[in-house]
Amino acid sequence: MTEAYVKSETHQGITTIEFFHPQSNSLPGKILEELAHEIHFAGTHEESKLIILRSAGEKAFCAGASFDELVAIKTEAEGLKFFSGFAHVINAMRKCPKLIIGRIQGKCVGGGVGLAAAVDYAIATEAAEVKLSELAVGIGPFVVGPAVERKIGASAFSQLAIDATLWRSSDWAKKKGLFAETHTSIANMDESVNRLANTLVHSSPEAMAELKTIFWKGTADWDQLLKDRAAISGRLVLSNFTRQAIEKFKSKN
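Structure (tokenized):
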């Protein structure tokens, strides 16, 4: 596979949304836009009772923002537009009346941690280490921060945000509440994802929608909050520090 994509399939009430990018499932603007669209569509589609969010491959779940697009940003307006892509995905997940299961088969970086935090129930493998690397390149986890902090608390979020080069284990993520379950293999993870999905698809759609509203209480201001956070990242990404840090990182990979 070399071409990035987002695809969605619905079978027996379960909508599976899968994304892929050849650079460790990183997230350029087009992928973010398509993810937000597919999540919104599944949330309003009667055939969909439940959503599974997954990425392709067996290694990285998501490497976060596309560095190629970050270095191409030339103005604050372009920065705001790019980082608003993450805001749109998180807000689509927040507003979606269907429960979302996250299938986390590998490492999560930056925006990938945000996706894992914004699903309603994350099932991972033991290989799914996490890192919020943004500060290391001169920005910060501003847009995904509210979703991560909501799930694991201010203390654990600040640990991730401050020590931006340290990988945390899947066991750490489970203990902090980011992951609901961790499994020794992809096969065991998939068995658990399928078990839960098949249970929930026979549950009351109305009850699940009401539960989801309760889970996300206190987030009604996120449309504006995440846009404001995107503006911070969009400004910081233009700094010389960030330009040099990203180029240095790219040269190592």
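The chain is about 50% helix and 15% strand. The chain has one domain: 5-185.
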